[in-house]
Batch of 2 targets.
Target 1
Amino acid sequence: MQPTHTRLDHFDGARTTDNAPLLEVKDVKTHFFTDEGIVKAVDGVNLSLKRGQTLCVVGESGCGKSVTARSILRIVPPPGKIVSGEIIFRQRNGESIDLVGMNPKGREIRNIRGGEISMIFQEPMSSLSPVHTIGSQIMEAILLHLPVSKQEARKRAISMLDLVGIPRPSEQLEAYSFELSGGMRQRAMIAIALACEPQLLIADEPTTALDVTTQANILDLIRELQQDSGMSVLFITHDLGVVAEIADEVVVMYLGRDVESGEVDAIFHDPKHPYTRALLQSIPRYDSRENKRLYSIKGTVPHPFDRPTGCPFHPRCDDFIAGQCNNIDPHRHSVSQSHSVRCLLYAPAETHNP
Amino acid sequence: MIWYIARRIIYLIPTLLVVSIIAFAVIQLPPGDFLASLISKAEETIDQAQVDALRERYGLDEPIYMQYWKWISGIITKGDFGDSFEWNRPVSELIWERLGLTMVISLFTLAFVWIVAIPIGIYSAVKKYTIGDYLVTIIGFIGLAIPNFLLALVLMYIAFRYFGQSVGGLFSPDYIQAPWSLERVLDLLSHLWLPVIILGTAGTAALIRVMRANLLDELSKLYVDAARARGLSELKLLFKYPVRVALNPLVSAVAWIFPALVSGSAITSIVLNLQTTGPLLYRSLQAQDMYLAGSLILLVSILTIIGTLVSDILLAWIDPRIQLQ
Amino acid sequence: MTSASTPSRKDDPANLTSEIQSETRIVVANQWQLIWWKFRKHRLAMFAGLVTLLLYAVALFAEFIAPYAPGTYSAAHTFLPPQTIHLFQNTADGWRFYPHVYGHKVQVDPESFKRTYVVDEATAYPIGLFVRGEEYQLWGLFTLDLHLVGAVQHGDPVHLIGADRLGRDVLSRTIYGTRVSMSVGLVGVGLSLLLGVILGGISGYYGGPIDNLIQRTIEILRSLPTIPLWMGLSAAIPLTWPPVRVYFAITVLLSLIGWTTLAREVRGRFLSLKTEDFVIAARLDGLRELPIILRHMVPSMTSHIIASVTLAIPGMILAETALSFLGIGLRPPVVSWGVLLQEAQNVRSIATAPWLLFPGLAVVASVLALNFLGDGLRDAADPYQT
C-alpha cells in the first residue's frame, strides 16, 4: 500500500514559467551589533536563483553563508540586523517583493516562511522540538499555510513522511525526535519544510552532521523531490564534493561577500578568483598520482573585528599586488555572461587607481 | 508510565527508612531516659506500675534497634505515634489538623509562586537586558535575601503601625476552636494571603531566575528558529516551544521548592502564630516532648517526600524524554 | 584593545612594541587573569565584592569599629531611639562644623507610667572619628581604646541606631554580630566543601554503584525540610555547653545538611571534565589517577567551586540567623545577628523599638552582597564562554 502524495490544485495554476529569477539578493549587508563592536557577518552579498535550479553557496565556516540564508527568511538572531540591500522574491501570484522591507515579525513574511520559502538546518536533532511529536510539527506547518482541516492535515502529514522515505509513516507521526536516527530526523525536517510545497528550499548544511552514507541518501532525496516539484534549492555547504554533485550555479563566499559566482562547470573548470582556485586545489583527489603535500591556503580567516582593508582576501592571496589589493575594494567584474568575480586581476585597467 | 511510577515508589522505601531513622534519632537525642524527665515534670507522683507499663510499651529496657522497631511498627500498623507528655494525649490526636494546615499553606504558596514567577520569568527572558529585566532581577535578589521571618516581622509591624491591625493566625478568634464548616474554610482563606506572600517571596524570586535562565537557553536553540522559519507567529512560537520546554525544569524545581516551603513555613508559622506543625514542633522541642517532636519531623519529611514524588511523576508525564532514561 | 598606558596613536612607530605587547597580553593571559577581566566587567558583582570585603573587615576589626562593647549596658537608656547626627551647630558666630547628637529627656506618662524619650536640644554630645573610649583587646593581643566612631567625650551616651531593652548599643552589637554571623557562613561552608568535594569527587570520578549510593543519599537529604530537622537536632545541644562549643556544633549541623549542593556541583564538573580531551590525553600519556585529578581536573574546577562556595555562604548565614532567632541556635552571651533579632521576636517589641530590626538589615545586605558576588563569579568562571 502506497499513499500517494497529493498535490494541491490551487498551487498549480499560479506557477509561472518565465525565466526571471525567483530570488535575487542584491548587495545585502547583515551586521551584528555586539558590545565589543560591529561584526560584519554579511557585507555585500549578491546572488540570483532561477526557478527549478540549485544554487550552492560555498565558503569556509564563518564566511557568512548561514547568515545570508537567515537574512533571506528574516530570521537573523539579535543583535544582527540587515543594514542595507534588497532581497527580491517572486511570489506564487507573480508579484515581486522586497523581503528586506518587511517587518521580520509581521504577517507578510510569516506567510512566506514555510509557505513559499522553507528552510532546513544543520543539526536535525536540535531543529526538532524535544517535547513535541514529529506529527504535531508537520501538521503545524500545514495548518499554518493551507486551508485544510485537522483531519486533512494529518493525512497530508502522513503522506509527506512517506514521501521523504520514513517507514511506517502513520506510526512515526507520534514519534518524538529523540526516538529517530539522525538521517530519519533530517528526513522529518525535510517533510516539514516541504509540507506546503514551497517554491524555494533553503538547506543550511543539511548533511554536515550526518554520516557519509546518510549524507548521500539525503542529497538524493532532496534532488528527487526537487525534480518532482520543480522547486528551487539554495544549498549552503562547505563541501565542494556536494557542490559538484548537485549544483547548477555556485556562489563562493569569503568574509561576508560573494567573491565569485557562475555556473558550476565554469567554477570547477575555469575558476578565476585566487580564493576559488585555492579552495579547489585543497581538495584531496584519489586519482592524483603525484605524492605531494595537499595544498592549503596560507594564514587563517581574520578575526571578525579585524577585517583587512581593500580586498578582504589579500593577506592570504598568492597573487597579492602590493599597494593595490590592500587599498582597493574590488567590484564585481564579469568574465563571461554568467560568470563574475571580485578581483583586481580581472578588473579593467582604468579602475586600478585608487 | 506505570512502570516508571512503580520504580519511583520503590525508590521511596530507602528514603522513608532513612527519614524514620533520623526522626527516631531526634527522639533519642536528649540526654537521659525520657521517662525520667516525664517523672520529674509530672505534677502528682506517678506510681511505679504506670512507669513500668510505659517502660514496657516503648521497650526502654530493650536494645535500641528493638525500640526503633517497636516505634515504627506501632506507627505503620496502628497509627500509634506514642504519647505527648506535655499534652498528655496520643501524638496522633494532636498532629493531623496541623499537618493538614501545613499542607494547605505549602500548596497555596506553591501555586502562588508558580503563578507569579512564570509570567515574570518569561517577561524577563524575552525582554532580556531591558530596564524591566534588571528591575525584576534586582527585586528577585532582594526577595531571596530577606529571611522569611524577617519579612513576617516587618509586614506585621507595618500592619500594626499603619493599619492598627494585629495580623497573624490562620483563623479569626471565633473560628479557632470551631469545627470545620464552610465559614471556617472561608475564614481560613481570608487569612492565608499573608503567610502565602511571606513564604512565597523567596521561592518566587528563585523560580523567576530559574525560568529566565531556562528560557534564555531554549530561546537560542535551533528548533525555535526552525519553527519561526515555518511561519509561526512570535507569540504562538514562544508559548508552544521554548516556554513549554523551559517549564520542564520548573516542574522538577518543585522537588526542592516544596521542601523549602514546608521548611520555611515552620519558622514563619512561629512568628505569625499559625496553627501549623512549626509552632508545635518548636514547643515540643523546648519541652523535650520527644515523641511529639520526632513524629512531627517524620511526618513533615514524608510530606515533602511525597511532594517530590508527585513532581517527579508530573515531570515524566509532561516530558517524554524522562521515561526513556 | 589598546591599554590605558599607551596614549600615543597607532601610526606612531614608537607605539609598535606596546601594540605587540597588548596583543601578546591576550595570548599569554592565564585563566585567572581572564576570569578577573571578565569579572571586572560585571559592575554589580564588583560592588558586591567590595561590600563583602567590607563586611569581613568589620568582622575582623569589630572592637575598633564598634563604639561600645557588646555587653555595655545602661539602665538609663533602655529602648533609647536612634539619634540623628547633626553636622553643624548654630552658635552666636553663625554655623560651625560640630558633629553632634542631642541628648534625651525621659518623660513618664502619669497614667500609664510609660516612659517616652523626648529630644533635648539643650544637650549636645559631640561625636567624631577615631575617638578614645572604652578599652578593649584587639584579637586578644593589643589593648587599645581607639574607636572608629563614637562620643568625643568618653561616657557621653551616643547610640546612633538606638539601644535595646537593657540600654545596650544596637549598632555596636550588630557590628560584633557580624563576626559570628559571617564566620558561621565561612566555617560551615568550609566543612560542607570538604564533604562535598570528597563525596562529589568520588561520585563523579568513579561513577557506578558508589555514584548511585551517594546520589541517592543526596536526593534523600535534599527532599527533607531542613529547618524542622535543624530544629530537632539543635535542640539536642545541651544547654550547659560553652558558647564556643555550641557555635561549632551549630556549624557542623548546618554543613551536615548543606553539603549536598556543593557535592552535586563537583560531581557535575567531574563528569563533564572526565570526557574532556585534555583529561583523556593525560590518561593516554600514562599518567596515574591522582596526578590527573590534582594537576588537570582540580585546577579547571577551582573557579567554579569558588563561585558555588560564595553562593552557599548566604544559605548558611540565613540558617544560623533563623535558628538563633528561634532560640535554638546560638545563645546569648554570643552575639550574632540571629541572637540580636531574638529581641524583636514579637510585634509588641518591634512596635516599641523598630530599630531592633537593624541586624536584619545587616543580614539582607550580606546575603545580597554574597549572592551578587557569587553570581558574578559564576559568570566569570568560564572566561572562554561568551
Note: The beta strands of chain B are 83-84, 89-90.
Target 2
Amino acid sequence: MVNKWCSLSFQCAPNSPSFPLTFGDLMKHLLLVLTMLSLSTMAWTQETFPVNGVHNQRHLVHAFVGAKVYVSPQRSIDQGVLLVKDGKVHAIGEGLSVPEGAVVHDCKGRVIYPSFIDLYAGLNVEKKDKKKKGPTEKNTSGNWNPAIHPEFEFEPVFPFDEKKVDDWLASGIGVVQLHERDGIMRGSSALLRFGLHTPNLAMIEQRASQHFSFHKGSSTNDYPSSHIGAIALFRQTLYDAQWYATTKDKKEFNPSLEALNNSVRTNRPFLFELRHPLSLRNVDMIEEEFGLSFIVKATGKEYLLEPERLRGQRLIVPLAFPKALDVSDPYVARSVALDELKHWEAAPYNTKALLKNGAELVLTRDTLPSAAIFLKHLRKVHETGVSHDSLLAMLTTIPASWLKVEGITGTLRAGDAADFFIANEAFTAADFRVSAHWSNGQLVYEKHYLDLSMAGTYNLVIDSVDFTLKLKEIKKEKWIASAERKTDGVSFKTQVDMERSLLQITLKNDSLDALIRLSGKVSFGGTVWDGTGQRNDGSWFNWAGIKDRKSGKEKEAKNNEQDSTLHAEPSIWYPNMAFGFDTLPVAQEYVITNAVVWTCADTGKLERSDVWVKDGKIKAVGRDMLYPDGLKRIDAKGRHLTPGIIDEHSHIAIRGGVNEWAQASSAEVRISDAVDPWNVQIYRHLAGGVTAAQLLHGSANPIGGQSALIKMKWGETPDAIFIDGADGFIKFALGENVKRSNSRDPKGRFPLTRMGVEQSFVDAFTRAQEYQASKASAPEETKGRRKPTPEPNSTTRTDLELEALVEILEQERFISCHSYVQSEILMLMRVAERFGFRVNTFTHILEGYKVAQEMKEHGVTGSTFSDWWAYKFEVNDAIPYNAALMSKVGVNTAINSDDAEMGRRLNQEAAKAIKYGGVSEEEALKMVTINPAKALHLDDRMGSIEPGKDADLVLWSAHPLSVYSHAEMTFIEGRKFYDIRHQEDLLKRNAEERARIVQKMLEDPSKKKKTAVPDHVDEYHCDTVLEDYWNK
Amino acid sequence: MTRLFIVTLLLIGSMTYAQVPTPSETYAGRMLIQYATVHIGNGEVLQNGLVEVQNGEISRVADASKSRVNAADYDTVINADGAHLYPGFILMDSRLGLTEIGAVRATHDYDETGDFLPNVRSAPAFNTESKIIPTVRANGVLMAQVAPTGGRVSGKAAVMHLDGWSWEDATILSDEGIYLNWPRRYRHTGWWGEPGSVKPNKKYDDEVEEVYSFFKEAKAYSKAGDPEEKNLRLDAMSAVFSGDARVYIRVNAAKDILDVVQFIRALDLPKSAVVGGAEAHLTAIPLKENNIPVVIDRVHKLPKQIDAHVHEPYALAGMLRKAGIEVAFSTSGDMEAMISRNLPFQVGTAVHHGMEYEDAIASLTLTPAKLLGVDSLYGSIEPGKRATLFLSEGDALDIPTNKLCFALIEGRFIDLNNHQKMLYEKFARKHGIEP
C-alpha cells in the first residue's frame, strides 16, 4: 500500500495531534495535487491518482535473503529474511520461508539497516526555485517583526535535485526533516523520505516540529540588532502568545501567535538551532521560564560546556569537523588562536563527551557536502569509543521517537514502513558502501560499485600476445590501471572501465602507435576475464585474462591508513584556550604577611601587616596575630596589598553586541544573556588586578539594557561568574550617541536632539506608571505578581520593557547613565525626581564637576574617565580634574574604563586623580575599589580589606598607583585566579600545545587545508553598534 | 631668584583669559638651573646638575658638586633640588594640530584622499590654536613630528615646536619624512565601532607591487634630470632617495615587517623606519642587521594574540632595545591626539617592563631627534643645543610625580596653563574649593 495524500495530516501520524485544516490549507493542498497530476510521470501507483494506461497495482512480495538485518539497534538477525509488501515490512526473521512468487534479492554477506533519519538535513537538496518565497518575503506574518513567523510552513518543491538526493541516500540517510532556516521563530518543518518524487509518497509528517533560533535571518527590520535583543524578542513573543491565548478582549487576529499557541497546545516538538555553545544556557532559561522543552541543534562544541548543563539535553549533533589549517608558515601558525587549534583535535570527541555527561543525542549530516565525508566522520566518532549500536540508535530510533514517528520509520519490525538500505558492511567499516536504498517499499537508489577486491595482477592473452595488467586502486569510481607487454616489457597507457560485469579496456602506446580496444565480461567473482577486441584495421580477435591469486589486498591496508586522522583524546582546560586552567583554583586558608595593606576603609594604609583569609572571606587584618600551626603563608614583604579593583563601566566578555540600538528603549534586553566567560579579557583584567565589573549595555539609545555584574572568575561556568544576589542595574544614556549624532546613517530614529531625549524618558516612565497601575488592578490571583510568570494576567499583556522600567520606579533596579554635558545631567535628575526615584550613577559624567553640588544633593555616584576628552564635540569641556572636584564636593566618585585596554590598568587611571586635582593617594585608590563598590551596592561585600568581606585581593609588586608596578597575584573569594609566576608555566604549556597540534596539522593528509587567519577578540565600547552583526 | 620666580610667571600666564595660552618671548637673561637631577637625553644622567641657559641656548652643563658658580652672574637662578630636568619629550607620528575633535570631521586635517600622496604636506595644516596642544605640553611633551595618515603614501611629516604664533613659527623642519602605509596581509573588517572578522587580504601582493613600482619610478625620475613634464608626486619623492627625507613605514605584523625590510634593501632607501612594529620583536634580527629603527605606536594597548604574554605590548620596547634596535615612541591610534599627553606614562610602563630608565629618556629625546635629523639643535641637554627642556618636581614618567615646574621651548618660558586647567579653577572656585 502507498500513502494516501490525505493521510498527511491525519492517519499517517497516529501519535501526532490532529489539526483542523483551514479552508486555505485545503485550497493549497488541492492546488498542489493538481500540479502534481500534470507533472507526474512516475511509474508508481498512487491510490488516489488516475492512471494513464492500464491499471498497474503490483502487490508483490520482495524478499531480501541472507543479509545481516538490523531490526533495531538492539536487535539484529544474522541470516535474515526480510519480506516487503505494499511499502511495509511484511515479515522479518531468521529462516523465514520465502513465499511463492516473491521477488528474491540475494543479500548474502550484506547488511541491511533501517534508513537513517536526519532531523537537520541541509537545505541544498532543493532545486533553485526563484519563484519560491521565503518566510519574510511571503509576509504572512501577523507579527510586527518579520523574524517571527511561526505560522510559516515548509513546503518542499518537488522534484528535488536527484544527484544530491542520491548522495544523501548513499550516506544511508533516507528520512530527513527540512525547514526554512530563516528567522527567530521559523515555522514548521516537513519530515519526508528522500528519493520519492511526489509529496504524497515522500511526506511522513507535515508540520513535524516547530523551529527556532536567536538569529534574525533575512528580516530587514532593524530590531533585533544583537544577541541580547534576539533573546528579548523571543521571550516577549512567548509572553504575547500566552496573553493572546487567555485574553478576553483580543483586538487583532494574529496568525503568528495563533500558530505558536497551536503548536504548544498540540505538543509539537520544538527544535532550536544553536550557533554558539554558550547559547544553550539561554535556551535552558527560556525552557524554565515558559515550561517548554527544546530539542537543540548543537554546534559541535558543546563538549566545552559544564556537565550539569549537558545532563538530560536532547541534542542534534552535527558531524562537521573543522578542516586542518594551512599552518606551513610559522608566522601564520603562531597567530592562530589556540582554542581553534585545540578544537580541530577535539571535535571528533564531542559525541563521546556529550554521551558521557548524560545528554541524549542524534546525529546530523547537516550541510556536509558529501556522503563520503559524513561516513568518514561517523567512523571517526566510532573510533573515539562510541559503539556501533549506540550510533545506530542516534541515526534511527532516537530521532524517530523525538519526532513521534517510531513505529513508522527508524526500525524494521513487521508493519513498519519499508525504509531501509543495503550495504556491503557495517557502517563502521572503512569501505562501507550503500548499494541500494529502499523507501516506503520502493527501490529509490541503486549503485554498482567497482569491487576493490578485484585489485591485483592479471595475466592477459590478447590476440596471442601475453600482457600483464595491474588494477591498482579506485579513484573517483575509476580504476587506476597499468599494463605491459610481457615479451619486451613495453608499457601501455591503460584504461579499464567496468559497468556491472562488463569490461572495456583500452591499451595505448603512442611511440608504437598502438591502440588496442577490448570488450569483455568478468566471471568467477572477477577473477576470470574474456571477450573480443578490435585491431586498428577493424578486424576482430579474442582475448582472455586470469587473476594472479597472490596479488591484491595490500592496497586496502594503505587506504585505511590514509583515512585515519583521529588523534588521541586531548585534554580540556578551563576555559579551553590559552591560559586556561588544568584544574580550577580552590579556596584555601592562608595568611598574606608583611604587606603594605591599603584597606580602603577607615583603617587606611597599614605598613607591614597581615591579611588572614579563610573560607573565601577576610578573617582578620592586623599584625603579630597568632596563627594556627601549618597555616599557609604568602610572604609579601615589600609588596602592596589592595582590594580587588572594580570597574563600574566595562564591556568586556560580551558576545553578539552590546547595543540593542534599534529602538529608543531596550530596557527588555539583558547583558547577562550574552556574558562570555571564555573571553581572554577576563584573564587580562585579572592581570591588571581587576576582580569585579559591571558589564553594561552600550549607549546607543536613551534607555539601554540591563547590566550584568560579574567577578573575573576565569575558567568558571557562565552561571558562576555572576555576582550572587547583586542588585539589578540598567544602562541609560544621554547626548551624542543617543542622538546618533555620529552615526553614518541615523535613520531618523527618535530622538535626534537633547529635547527629544528628555521626552523619551518622560514617555517611558509615564507608560511604566500606567502599566504598574494596570497590573495592580489585576484579578486577585495574579495581583502583586508583576514579575513575569508563565500564568499571565488575563487583561494586561506582560511587557518586558515596561517590567524593567517599573522596577526602576519601585527602586528595585538602578540606573547607570552614560552622560557628558551638564544640561542633560540635570535634566535626568529632574525627570527621576518627578517620577519619584533617584539616578544611581552617572557614568563618564565628564561635566560632573560643573554640577557636583546638584549631584550630591540628588545622591548620585559619579563614575568618570580619568582623562579622556576631545573625541566628540560634547566632551570639549571634559577635564582630568573632574574626579577630584566631584570627590571634594562630596560626590561618591569612581573611575571607570569603558575600554578593555584601560580596564586592565585602572590603578594608573586612579593615579591621575592625584596628578590632576591633588586627591590623596588613598582616596585615589578608593575610586577604583570601595567607591565603585558603593555605586554597585556591593560595598558590604567587597571594595575594602576588612574582616568578613570577600577575599578579593591584589598583591602588587610595588606602589599600586605607580606605573612601576604590576599585579603579582589576584585572588577572588580566596581563590588565586592569577599568579604572574604561574603565567610563565602557562605560556610554556600554551607554546608546547600549539607546537604539538601544528605539527599534527602539518602531517594531516588532507589536500585542501583551510586558510588560517590570525585570532581576534572583538572589543566593544559604549558606541559599538553591530549593524553587520547578523552578516558575520 | 628662586623657584618663586616661576610661580609668579605661571600666575601671570593664567590671568590671560585666552583659550589657548599666548607664546612668550625668549628669556633674554642669563639663567642657571642648579641641583636638579639632569637627564641629558643621551643615556646619561647628572644626579646633581648645573645647566646654564642664555639667549635660548644651553651654554653650559656640569656636575654642580664639582663646579663653582657665582649666583650674581645670573639674572635668574633656579634651585631645583630634588627636581628632575629633562630635554623636551618628542612625540613621533602625531596628529597634534591636525585634528581637534575625533567625531567632528570638519576638524580633521590628516587623511587626504588618494593613494600616493607624497606631495601632501602636514606643516601648513598645523593649527597652533589647538586646545589639545597645551594639555600635552603640560606633561613635558614639547616637540612633535606631525604626520598625515591617508592613502598608501600619506604625505610629508614635519617637526614642530608645540608652541608658536603660526605654523611657520612652530616649524622646526618641514618635509622631514614621508609616511607609507604598508599593505596588510590580513584585514580586520569593520571599524572600532563595529568590529568585524579577520580576513586574508587577497590583494596583498598587488598592493605591494604597486608600492614597489611607485618607488621604482620615483627613483628613476629623481635620477633622470630635467623631466619633460614636472610630476609633483614623483618630484616630492626625490628627497627620499637623496637621503634628505626618511621613509616611515607603518607596519605591524611580523611577516609584513619582513617584506618591508626587503623593500628597504631593494630600493636602497638611505633613511627609513618601521612605525607601529607590534611584532617587531619577532623580526629583531633583520631589523638590527639593516639598522632600521622602530617607532612604537603605543605602549598602552592589548596584546595582538590571545595567547601572548599579557604584558607583551609593555615589554616590546625593552625587547627591541636589548636586541640593539633604536626605539622612539608615538601614541597613534584611537583618540591619538588627546592621549599624547600620556606619552611619558606609556614610556614609564615600558621602563617597568624591561627598558633601562635613561635609555627610555633617550628614546623620548635624542633618539627621535636623530631620526628627525634635528639632533644638532634638539634632543638633549648639552651645550650648544636649543633650550627646549622642562623641570618636573618628580619623575616625569610616573603619573603622581609628573608635575611640571616650568618648561622652555627654545628658551621661551611656555605657559603651562590650558583650557582644562582654566575650567578646573573656574568651577573649583564655584564649589569653594582651593584649586
Note: Chain A touches chain B through 79 residues (CB under 8 Å).
